[in-house]
Amino acid sequence: AQTVTQSQPEMSVQEAETVTLSCTYDTSESDYYLFWYKQPPSRQMILVIRQEAYKQQNATENRFSVNFQKAAKSFSLKISDSQLGDAAMYFCAVSRRGSGTYKYIFGTGTRLKVLA
Amino acid sequence: GAVVSQHPSRVICKSGTSVKIECRSLDFQATTMFWYRQFPKKSLMLMATSNEGSKATYEQGVEKDKFLINHASLTLSTLTVTSAHPEDSSFYICSAVLTMNTEAFFGQGTRLTVV
Questions:
Q1: Contact between A44 and B106 using a beta-carbon 8 Å cutoff
Q2: Average pLDDT over residues B1-7
Q3: Where are the beta strands (DSSP E) in chain A?
């Protein structure tokens, strides 16, 4: 079975500081993608960053970057210069092939609080 | 980015009735859409994969006769909760992908309350 584990139910960070959210996954697929999605109080899911498993280079998107360790099946998200608007639930997800389509499997989420 | 619109955003229905939720891709064609259920403060649980022009593929444990999915066109998928009961109350979210291996775009979600 494909699984995604986020071991931190909740994290806090001071405004302007850096925080890292952890994610580990398990998949037997050789072809897959990893994602971090943000869900603010509005509950609209927003893509934060995406990583192709075949790429060794870690993805970066402005203040957001990942540490992708393929052998360890680890995919952590680093948020630099945290802002109040970063406060949200963050979900790690892996897309896997199933019946010809790519399904997303989500972790349990990490609630990030940003302290002013 | 691509826009996925979900309607209604909130619905209250009586126990025993059916309710339909629509998911539309506004500016792209989506051959595949996904339906999720999210319990309070929990993760998104994939319910089914909706394929245009064919039957939906349901995840294990999801009742096909309870959650009817129709994907009649490349821009519209519907989820009908039949004979709803209070335990069906939840937040339902749809998503669509432009092409395989690209990001999924999500609807705004529908909060269903069955009384």
A1: yes
A2: 89
A3: 3-5, 10-14, 19-21, 24-26, 33-39, 46-52, 60-61, 64-69, 74-79, 88-98, 101-106, 110-115
Full DSSP string of B4-58 = EEEE-SEEEE-TT--EEEEEEESSS--SEEEEEEE-TT--EEEEEEEETTS--EE
Q: Alpha-carbon torsion A98, A110, A6, B10, what sign?
A: negative
The β-bridge relationship of strands A10-14 and A110-115 is: parallel
Evaluate the omega torsion of the peptide bond into residue B8 and state whether it is cis, within 30 degrees of 0.
yes
Chain B residues close to A35, C-beta within 8 Å = 103-104
Of B115, B110, B108, nearest to B37 (Cα)?
Answer: B110
- Which DSSP state fits B86? G
Q: In what order do the strands lie in the sheet with B19-25?
A: B4-7, B19-25, B76-81, B67-73
pLDDT in tens, chain A (116 residues): 778 999 999 999 999 999 999 999 998 887 888 999 999 999 999 999 999 888 889 999 999 999 999 999 999 999 999 999 999 999 999 987 665 667 888 999 999 999 99
| CA gyration radius, chain A | 14
Nearest residue to B115 (alpha-carbon basis) of B93, B87, B82: B87
Does B101 contact A105 at a Cβ distance shorter than 8 Å? no
- Residue B44 with chain A: CB contacts under 8 Å: 45, 91, 104, 106
